[in-house]
Each structure stands twice: as C-alpha cells, then as structure tokens.
Design brief:
The chain is mainly α. It has one domain. It has helices at residues 2-9, 14-24, 30-36, 39-54, 74-79, 81-88. The longest helix is centred in the middle third of the chain and has 16 residues, at 39-54. The chain is globular and about 35 Å long.
C-alpha cells in the first residue's frame, strides 16, 4: 500500500518514481524492474490499458483507481489511498511509527 501511495504522489517519470519509492521503502527494485522491462510487464501494461479503455464512464484522468469496481471518489483516493481503501472495506487501521 505504501508503495502505491508513493507512486501516486509523484509519477511524472514512472520508472524513476518506481525506483525511488522502492529505495525509500527499502525493498529490492530489481525483480520489479525485470518484470517491467520483460514480456510479462508488457502484457500487464496492455491488460491495464484495455481495462482503462473499457471503463464506463470513461476515465477522466490517470491514474484512475477502482475500489470494488467503482471509480467514485477519485480526488479522495488520490489524496489518501489507505484511508479510502479502509473506508470502502470498513477496516480500522492503527498507524504506528516505524
């Protein structure tokens, strides 16, 4: 979840942001990078594009995040993804300092 939030916060250069977020969150970016630059990454990108094009109503901007197949509340989702996921699935999260 933290990785997705990081990517949403700054994704003008997606590959740079992905590597930076991985470093900030202390996980190995190399397996993800291999996927991104390989056949599986290409197939996943095509599938995501097809899903985006099939949205009704059409996506008004990217990223459009679906929660339970709904694109409602995009502004709130992009502002605080974790809070909106928890609200949508009625989960209580206690944040601790790490």
């Amino acid at each position: 979840m933290h990785y997705v939030q990081c990517m949403i916060a700054d994704n003008y250069e997606p590959l740079d942001a992905a590597a930076r977020c991985a470093k900030e969150l202390n996980f190995d970016w190399s397996p993800v990078q291999r996927c991104v630059s390989g056949r599986q990454g290409e197939e996943l990108l095509v599938a995501a594009g097809d899903s985006t094009l099939a949205l009704r109503p059409k996506a008004s901007f990217i990223p459009t995040v679906l929660l339970n197949d709904s694109q409602e509340d995009q502004k709130a989702i992009l502002k605080n993804l974790l809070r909106e996921v928890c609200r949508k699935y009625q989960v209580t999260v206690v944040m601790t300092k790490s």
